[in-house]
Write a structure and sequence with these properties.
Layout: H1 20-23, H2 45-48, E1 50-52, H3 63-80, H4 96-104, H5 110-117, E2 118-123, E3 127-135, E4 137-141, E5 150-153, E6 159-161, E7 178-181, E8 187-189, H6 193-197, E9 207-211, H7 214-223, E10 225-229, E11 236-244, H8 252-258, H9 272-281, H10 283-291, E12 297-301, E13 320-322, E14 333-338, E15 345-351, E16 361-368, H11 370-377, E17 380-390, H12 391-397
Parallel strand pairs: 3-16, 4-10, 13-15
Antiparallel strand pairs: 1-2, 2-17, 3-17, 4-9, 5-9, 6-7, 7-8, 10-11, 11-12, 13-16, 14-15, 14-17
Helix pairs in contact: 3-4, 3-5, 9-10
């Protein structure tokens, strides 16, 4: 339970929100992979409309919530103290004092830590919108056991960034698009979801394992990480995002709502549960809808803690949040006060996503398991957000 009167998940009613299916993209690791989210353009503090508030604006932080946030914050320090903040709000040196203090601070007094070393600021009007994501557990195995099993591919050798044939030189700026080389050396668009499902990668890409359910695997790709659970052997294979095919992400929840397939009096809620129910009731139409999201995610096997957020540290249930780094520095504590009280409290910015765009747009992480699936699947919270900046940064911004 988070601060602010959050309710246990068992009291939640499946939401009428178009959740992350329409809004969120995969977790995007920073190093050694092919990104599906382009690096954001740097912003300036003036452009963001920053208002510094008195420390009293934090209110009385829940001790357990603050403790978990402090633990998560420590893992972000190596990034915050060494990496450029594209939001323009902080500098690596700003994080040195709070990070040094965090190493020796007692977890039992974490609320005092955040009050002492951070200044709450509001970005724009502070009007927040938050969705949720989780680490799915789906049936799968190392080897194919049925003709309908879906291969879980790692990054193909022919996926690369190159300028496609016919691309004018005037458009060849920045990074080349994700593409593939043909046998004669030409650079062309990479395979779409439909082409991959039809076997374009058969024998041409490493296979980690097989998912037993195409719909469940579709949603695992949206989340960007998950677990394949073999019911026969008990083996659990944790997989994480390793790359993407270069095609844009399309949220099918929004498409289905616009077409009147979910919501209203259709009998299908605008939640992940409602979307899945429709896809199962109408398999042919559902398969065509899923193919309208041409993006395909490639995976790698994760060892140890996970899944990893975009800054390369493990994301933690009820403590890690995905943000748009043009507006929120990675590693920054975020205080949410929403109409979904289960998400109220302190979170640490450790991730981003394909559709997490704009000021005060957040995606809260809920871990693994059925409760995580239920909470994330119905999370669509609106309210207010405060970003906690190191005192040195806040003072510089408000001079």
């Amino acid at each position: 339970m988070r601060a602010g009167g959050g309710k246990p998940w068992r009291r939640l009613v499946a939401a009428t929100a178009v959740l992350l299916v329409a809004a969120c993209g995969p977790i995007i690791p920073e190093a050694g992979v092919v990104e599906s989210v382009p690096p954001p353009a740097a912003s300036s503090a003036a452009q963001l409309g920053i208002t510094a508030l008195a420390p009293a604006s934090l209110g009385a932080l829940n001790s357990g919530d603050a403790r978990d946030a402090l633990i998560a914050f420590r893992t972000s320090c190596r990034v915050a103290t060494s990496r450029e903040d594209v939001s323009g709000l902080t500098q690596p040196a700003d994080w040195a004092i709070p990070c040094d203090a965090a190493n020796g601070w007692a977890n039992s007094n974490a609320a005092a830590f955040f009050a002492a070393y951070f200044t709450p600021v509001r970005v724009g009007e502070g009007t927040a919108f938050a969705t949720g994501y989780f680490e799915p557990e789906i049936a799968g195995s190392r080897t194919r056991r049925a003709a309908t099993d879906v291969p879980v591919y790692s990054v193909p050798a022919d996926l690369e960034r190159c300028w496609r044939d016919g691309s004018p030189e005037s458009e060849q700026t920045g990074r080349a698009p994700l593409s593939r080389r043909t046998s004669d050396g030409r650079c062309v668009e990479y395979y779409t979801r439909a082409e991959i499902e039809d076997g374009a990668l058969d024998g041409n890409a490493p296979v980690i394992g097989y998912a037993a359910d195409a719909i469940e695997f579709f949603f695992l790709q949206i989340q960007g990480s998950g677990r394949l659970v073999d019911s026969r052997s008990g083996e659990v294979i944790r997989i994480g995002y390793a790359g993407q095919n270069g095609h844009g992400y399309t949220g099918i929840g929004a498409l289905m709502r616009e077409r009147g397939l979910i919501g209203g009096d259709t009998g299908y809620a605008t939640s992940m549960q409602g979307i899945i129910a429709y896809l199962r009731d109408y398999p042919e139409q559902g398969r065509a809808i899923m193919r309208e999201n041409e993006s395909w995610v490639f995976f790698t096997v994760l060892e140890g803690e996970g899944p990893l957020g975009s800054i390369g540290v493990p994301v933690v249930r009820e403590s890690s949040v995905a943000v748009d780094p043009r507006f929120v520095p990675y590693g920054a504590p975020v205080l949410l006060d929403l109409d979904r009280s289960v998400a109220n409290g302190l979170w640490i910015a450790q991730d981003t996503g394909g559709a997490i765009r704009g000021a005060n747009r957040f995606d809260t992480f809920w871990g693994a398991g059925e409760d995580a699936r239920e909470i994330a699947g119905g999370m669509s919270g609106r309210g207010q957000a405060l970003i906690l900046l190191p005192n040195a940064a806040a003072q510089r911004l408000t001079q």
